[in-house]
Amino acid sequence: DLRKQARQLENELDLKLVSFSKLCTSYSGSRDGRRDRYSSDTTPLLNGSSQDRMFETMAVEIEQLLGKLTGLNDKMAEYTNSAGVPSLNAALMHTLQRHRDILQDYTHEFHKTKANFLAIRERENLLGSVRSFGESYKSGSGVNNRRTELFLKEHEHLRNSDRLIEETISIAMATKENMTSQRGMLKSIQSKMNTLANRFPAVNSLIQRINLRKRRDSLILGGVIGVCTILLLLYAFH
Question: Is the pTM of this model over 0.90?
Answer without folding.
Answer: no
